[in-house]
Amino acid sequence: MKMSKRYTRAAALLAVLSLVVAACGDDDDDDAGGDAVETTTAATAGETGTTTGEAAGPAGELEGAVNIVAWAGYIEDGTTDSAYDWVTAFETDTGCEVTVTTAGTSDEMVSLMTGSDEYDLVTASGDASNRLIAGETVVPVDLNRIPSYATVDERLKDAPWYTVGTDHYGVPYQWGSNVLMYNTEAFPEPPTSWSVVFEAGELPDGESNEGRVQAYDGPIYIADAALYLMATQPDLGITDPYALNQEQFDAAIELLTAQRDLVSRYWHDVTVQIDDFTNEGIVASSSWPYQVNTLVAAGAPIASTVPEEGATGWADTTMLSAAAPHPNCAYAWMEWSLNPKVQGDVAAWFGSAPAVPDGCTGSELLGPQGCATNGFDNFDQIRFWKTPQADCFGAGTDCIPYSTWTEEYQAVMNG
Amino acid sequence: MLWLGGVYLGSLLGLVWQSFYTFDDFAGKVRHDLGFDTWERLWSNETNRIIVGRTVLMALAVTIACAMLAYPLAYFMARYATRRVKAVLLFLAIMPLWSNYLVRVYSWKLIMAKEGALPWSLDKVGLGKGLEWALDLPYIGGQGLTFSLLGQFIVFTYVWLPYMVLPVHAALERVPRSFVEAAGDLGARPATVFRSVIWPLALPGVVAGSIFTFSLTLGDYIVPTIIGNSKPVIGAQVYVYQGVAGNLPLAAAFTFVPIAIMAVYLTIAKRLGAFEAL
């Protein structure tokens, strides 16, 4: 979800294009030569807790293809920028031809995967992953077949968004945090609190912050407000910014309503935000490492920080479909995706943090400082993204559901 | 034709059907129980009413501005320009449609930025104060042109102008020269000729153009996210409910607001003879 909006427009275009393409020709080359193999793996995977053994069974012959649903920019084959290519080598090594279907939102990912026997893998964010597990759209993987899982960041191993009991529904791919991006001319010292975007006041350069800060154009930003309230109004008793009762939710909305007067434009398009920081005198906003990297690379006086209240963020998992037509190639890809160089290259391209610590040193594209820039050391301060649910994630019944978040946030932006 | 109609009406009916489903807040899922919950939610929510009002006002303002800009241009092309000049002008009016809409919108953001070409030029010709005054206006003003509804209005007007120029031009072309000459021979002054001969005969063209500008503005959700103060519009609202919240019924119900508005609009347009001018 996090990076979804970034590609909203591209996704809309893609949706149109894909319709055109689908209408023009529906050639099924993915199954080339794989028909005989798919049925050979019998259901011997009882110990992994699944009945669809085909997906989690022992290794068999590679099928020659693998279909992945991913965020745009997550799986690059060098066509966008020839330096960023972690597909060609995999195809050469394994003979599995990679087909990527990009999705723009978590909801799109869920709907693509549900009831489809076309896709093998999906790079699901924290909000989608639990829904996919609950819907039995994805199955546990046999970690013995993915030796590189041992190299995964200890902090991500067995994380609740892809682990149920002892079952692992995939392997971590990338994660990242939202950051407070600021202009170093307005802030000679890094701001230490989100208050610079939430509360009216004077910035270090002596001018008011009114009209000079931005907020994210998405209901999930309410969690950012709740996170800030956790530190500033402990009396509210917020323990999880995604599980808010009515009183806590109202307090967050009140904070955001006051913030409306400070914000000239909410952002969700990265290009627009980059332009606003360059040409429109915006000096502080919640943002993603991607924009920070882009602006810094362009020589703008921009830096980022994670304030002492912490930040929200996302963590994505490569998950295996229950109806995967090419399970062996899918396993090969999962193993490959944890390769330090791949991990580092993705992180460099996407502005995320690798799920494998070796990725920080394994990629020239990322460089020695890349992991630090992309927030690798901020893990403990991050509240990972999940979809708010009325049952407080099983801890109660009085939480405000996501649809209300959406409506209320629209009301806030409406002013 | 029958086939097309079937596909079109079928999907429309599907959309209506969707809007009668209910949305389960607890699970965040669509329940296939039929009811009026969604529609009630649509109307009882004050935010939604304000959003509809704002979008319609913007669409009206853009339509009027397009008509005012396109009419003189089309009039000149149809009545005074030589063949060659007319060809050049028509070409210039259509040319923007060749480049991508997004590219043009992003360019306008740069032109209107605080340090962009437009504020700079206005300042140079001594109109900087005028711009400041306009931006100080309540509601349409803002901290800068690209942050204001005024800026959004300018971009909408620019983007949809060609769709107004073409039908108006076509309508004016069809006003027979002999009518104008006859009116002159009967002693009508130019202003009278315009008022009682040319304008009524060209009106269907203006109305036809306004169908385009009005409906395009009504449904657009891209310009308001790039230019303006982030106040939601109908298109963005549908997108949010469908894409982000997964609340398909409400999105479907919301889709019917512009459809209903356009139905009314088209009925009026038909009365004014716009379909003959297309």
Keywords:
heterodimer, A: 415 residues, alpha/beta, D-Maltodextrin-Binding Protein, domain 2, 2 domains, eight-stranded mixed sheet, four-stranded mixed sheet, 16 helices, 14 strands, globular, disordered N terminus, B: 278 residues, mainly alpha, MetI-like fold, 14 helices, 2 strands, 75% helix, 2% strand
Description:
The complex is a heterodimer of chains A (415) and B (278). Chain A has 415 residues and is of the alpha/beta class. Helix content of chain A is 34%, strand content 15%. Chain A has helices spanning 8-24, 35-38, 53-56, 88-94, 106-113, 126-134, 195-198, 221-232, 246-260, 270-279, 289-297, 327-337, 340-350, 359-362, 370-373, 402-414; strands spanning 65-71, 97-103, 121-124, 138-139, 163-164, 167-168, 171-177, 179-183, 213-214, 284-287, 302-305, 311-321, 353-354, 382-384. In chain A, the strands form three sheets. In chain A, strands 1, 2, 3, 4, 7, 12, 13 and 14 form an eight-stranded mixed sheet that branches. A four-stranded mixed sheet of chain A has the order 9-10-8-11, with helices on one face. A two-stranded antiparallel ribbon of chain A has the order 5-6. In chain A, strand 5 (163-164) and strand 6 form a beta hairpin. Chain A is globular. The model of chain A is unreliable at 1-57 (pLDDT under 50). Chain B is mainly alpha-helical. Chain B has one domain (17-277): MetI-like (MetI-like fold, Orthogonal Bundle), CATH 1.10.3720. Chain B contains 14 helices and two strands. In chain B, strand 1 and strand 2 form a beta hairpin. In chain B, helix 6 (117-124) crosses helix 7. The radius of gyration of chain B is 22 Å and the shape is globular. The chains are: A alpha/beta (415), B mainly alpha (278). Chain A binds chain B through residues 8-9, 104-105, 107-108, 211, 217-219, 263-266, 268-269, 271-272, 275, 279-281, 387, 389-391, 401-407, 410-411, 413-415, and chain B through 23, 25-28, 45, 47, 50-51, 102, 106, 109-110, 113-116, 142-144, 146-147, 222, 225-226, 228-232, 237, 240-241, 243-247.
